[in-house]
């Protein structure tokens, strides 16, 4: 169904994808209701996400069509963030680090793919003095930014006040609307039959004096990959494990691996408080690309899920593409590679 003011749209899922779509639709005149089973955010991937906006690194060796979508999402973030207000959007850039010679040899392929210039350990420490003297090499990606997903979701929820209902939708037949958009993360599988699985990730939050780090750190330390995302208030998000598991149990091994890699790269983090250990689930698909488009020929149900590691980066472009689809009935050609039909 197409239209604007009279279109009743139900969003099943209140994470950053669902809320971004709902806010876009509301702004464009649709009558929107969001059904969210856990509005406190405890069940959402966004609650755990660090907020790295890195289209190059995420797409390097993945689904080929994904690169274009990630870059389109990245281009929208400056205006999207400006429209939201203070959401921790930071353009300082990302430093990629390699602790050992083996780490450097592995990272060199990625840096070459992204057309980044390699830096010596000394050059890295000129940019970020807190980096360990043991770090062998690095590269600077000026275009890779960050945002605080928790702040983004708080702003979006405030804009949608009165339109969010706490409810667990178990069957789409329960929902009365002209159009239903399923943006329920890995729970989308049970509602649609699509192959979206939960991929467990453990993330730490450290807190200390602000200013230890200026850049996002994306590093490898003795084969352990870790990212460090510093916030202006002194928080540093450390992540993330990636496990093909559906449980919510933080593990000693996961925490140990993250902390060991983080401290090998930035020894000064040893003085920070370990303030939070969180477990979340990225919604993964067989090809690691999102599922975006009409579920069936009746064009009443739209799917916007399966964003895996890229939910934050792809939130604004997903909102625009899905709102266009719902309100005009026609799909942007960029969606051709991401339709639900590829798995049916």
Range of strand content: 15-25%
Number of strands: 16
Helix content: 25-40%
Q: So what's the oligomer here? A: single chain
| Largest beta sheet: strand ordering | 5-6-4-11-12-13-10-14
Q: How far apart lie the N and C ends?
A: 23 Å
Helix segment tally: 10
Summarize the structure.
The protein contains 10 helices and 16 strands. The protein has 344 residues and is α/β, with parallel strands linked by helices.
Describe this structure in words.
The protein is α/β, with parallel strands linked by helices and 344 residues long. 31% of the residues lie in helices and 25% in strands. It contains ten helices and 16 strands. The strands form three sheets. Strands 5-6-4-11-12-13-10-14 form an eight-stranded mixed β-sheet. β11 (216-221) and β12 form a beta hairpin. The radius of gyration is 20 Å and the shape is elongated.
Element layout with pairings:
Elements: E1 8-12, H1 16-27, E2 31-36, H2 45-48, E3 52-53, H3 55-59, H4 66-84, E4 94-98, H5 101-113, E5 118-120, H6 121-127, E6 137-141, E7 145-146, H7 149-159, E8 164-166, E9 179-182, H8 188-192, E10 197-207, E11 216-221, E12 224-230, E13 235-239, H9 252-265, E14 273-284, E15 291-294, E16 301-305, H10 311-328
Parallel strand pairs: 1-2, 1-9, 2-8, 4-11, 9-16
Antiparallel strand pairs: 3-7, 4-6, 5-6, 10-13, 10-14, 11-12, 12-13, 15-16
């Amino acid at each position: 169904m197409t239209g604007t003011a009279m279109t009743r749209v139900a969003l099943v899922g209140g994470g950053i994808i669902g809320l971004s779509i709902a806010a876009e639709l509301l702004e464009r005149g649709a009558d929107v209701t969001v059904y969210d089973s856990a509005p406190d955010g405890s069940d959402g991937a966004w609650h755990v996400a660090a907020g790295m906006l890195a289209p190059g690194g995420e797409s390097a060796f993945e689904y080929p069509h994904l690169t274009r979508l990630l870059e389109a999402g990245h281009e929208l973030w400056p205006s999207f963030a400006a429209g939201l207000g203070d959401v921790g959007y930071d353009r300082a850039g990302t430093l990629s680090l390699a602790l050992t010679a083996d780490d450097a040899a592995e990272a060199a392929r990625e840096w070459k793919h992204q057309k980044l210039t390699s830096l010596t350990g000394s050059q890295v420490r000129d940019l970020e003095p807190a980096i360990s003297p043991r770090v062998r090499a690095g590269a600077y990606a000026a275009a890779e930014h960050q945002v605080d997903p928790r702040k983004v979701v708080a702003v979006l929820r405030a804009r949608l006040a009165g339109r969010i209902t706490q409810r667990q939708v178990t069957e789409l037949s329960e929902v009365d609307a002209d159009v239903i958009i399923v943006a329920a993360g890995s729970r989308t599988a049970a509602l649609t039959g699509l192959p979206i699985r939960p991929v467990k990730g453990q993330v730490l939050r450290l807190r200390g004096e602000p200013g230890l780090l200026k850049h996002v750190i994306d590093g490898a330390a003795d084969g352990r990959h870790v990212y460090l995302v510093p916030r202006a208030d002194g928080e540093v998000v450390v992540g993330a494990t990636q496990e093909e598991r559906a449980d919510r149990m933080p593990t000693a091994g996961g925490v140990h691996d993250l902390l060991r890699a983080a401290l090998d790269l930035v020894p000064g983090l040893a003085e920070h408080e370990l303030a939070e250990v969180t477990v979340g689930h990225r919604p993964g698909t067989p090809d690691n690309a999102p599922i975006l488009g009409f579920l069936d020929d009746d064009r009443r149900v739209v799917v916007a899920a399966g964003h895996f590691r890229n939910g934050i980066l792809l939130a604004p472009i997903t909102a625009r593409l899905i709102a266009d689809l719902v309100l005009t009935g026609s799909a942007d050609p960029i969606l051709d590679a991401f339709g639900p039909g590829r798995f049916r």
